Amino acid sequence: MIGTEHILAEPETVVGIILNAEGLVAMIKRNCPPMVGKWALPGGERWEWETPLAAMEREVWEETGIVVQKSSLLMKEGSIYYFLGYELHRDERFHPDFEVEQFQYMKLQDPRVTEAYPENQNILDKFLLL
Question: Tens digits of per-residue pLDDT, 10-21?
């Protein structure tokens, strides 16, 4: 467990929009505040020594067991970095930590994709759902 001394004084959040070979997006059902029980894109806070890209790759692994490839920054909005990436490999034996209740791939148009954070719809509309 990482102590709070490694969190940035002004936190930055990273979000991974991770697609599989079928074009479905990786989603997690949250098991801790905020938005307990809601579906969300995998993501979290960046540690002080990480680049935003490395933080996104770490968060996606911790929450889904997915190793990401071909990642690129879509947009930075305030203190939130949005990345697009593709599944290279997913460890089927992976069990997420306490933060995640469930993992599932969904169609981008599924309303659960923006259930926890409706503002993500703007990013999806702009970059993926054209």
Answer: 889 999 999 999
Q: Which helix (H) or strand (E) holds 28?
A: strand 25-30
Tell me, what's the pLDDT at 4?
55
CB atoms within 10 A of CB 66: 23
Structural domains of the chain, ranges and CATH numbers in brackets: 13-110 (3.90.79.10)
Integer angstrom CA distances of residue 10 from 3, 16, 48, 92, 103: 16, 20, 10, 35, 29
Q: Can you name the residues that pair with 87 across neighbouring β-strands? A: 68
Q: Which residues pair with 127 in a beta bridge?
A: none
CA distance 83 to 75: 7
Separation CA 33–CA 68 (nearest Å): 25
